[in-house]
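1st attempt posting a full record on here, be nice pls
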Amino acid sequence: MSSEIEEKTERLVRLCADGGLGGILINSQPNFSWLSAGGTNGVDTSRENGVATLFVRRDGKRFVIASRIEIQRIANEELGGAAFEPVEFAWEEEKASPTVVSELAQSLNSSALPLGADTPFGPNVKLIEGAISQTRYRLTDPEIERYRALGKDAGAVIGDLARSVEPGITERQVARKVDDALTAIGAKSIVTLVAADDRLQKYRHPVPKDTPWRNNLMIVVCVRRNGLVASLTRIVCAGKRSDELDRRTKASARVNAELCAATRPGIIGSELYEIAASAYNEEGFPGEEKLHHQGGAAGYRTRDWVAHPKSTDKVQESQAFAWNPSVTGSKVEETCIAYADRVEIITATPDWPTIQREVAGKEYQFPDVLEL
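the predicted structure (as tokens):
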């Protein structure tokens, strides 16, 4: 943990040097988890902002700034003894002045240079969220290990759950089972979509309703643990699937294989979008890419960026991706990590039926429809 935080601190120090900054404030919940190696400053998770702020000064000195309510818990439980000097203020000060945190950071600033931050801190602090995001895209080795563990657990748990759901229960009941199962592995679904039968045909983002499922059921989750987010989709069928569902699922798998084969350091989002569009056309489903986004870079957010026609975002070495191509009525989604010569899918479900697709001499496996 210490070496991971040191490496990330060095990235922020370089960002200070490149941007002419005296230090950087980290307050958003995803970025706090990144810099703290898996901690959280979230209490009210409906908000982007957390209850504690990390401050990295341009000389590498680290501070944690929080109210008297939070400072001891954050230092003890979320930072795990890592070297962040605590800076405490009265909660009443924060209510009276929204700039109390930035003022404290300015008092710690050992230079005359301005500060940068990932969330708005007032007129005297530069908002540099885009640049900060770029510093966290390349996963460290410990992060990759945590991500693999999350993907393995999530794939197994959602697979077991999908096998167990009996026809007749509602989408909301399925969603509740998802929440319970993920809580048991210390994780939380920050996106849960469940589609039964006709809703699978109609909607790309089926928020769970009181609709019972009879024939086909899709479960979609974005699972967070230690700040990292893994996304996956599983579809089950009560009995034999239809030929059309089979065709559409296999087409989605082909698109995903093309995307995975192309996801290498240096390629940009617009090129990946065009690869997906071409694959849909070749599979006999032209224009499906216009009905839903295809996914993109992942990590401490469900998607850091999405591939689209104007995207200039570039794939980095050891960056996570979650591709989710869909042909109306079906979808194939997994989370992977991109390397120079391959991608590693981390959310596979043990003993789940798979679809094999070969692209440029490499074989990719994706989840098929499970017939119950």
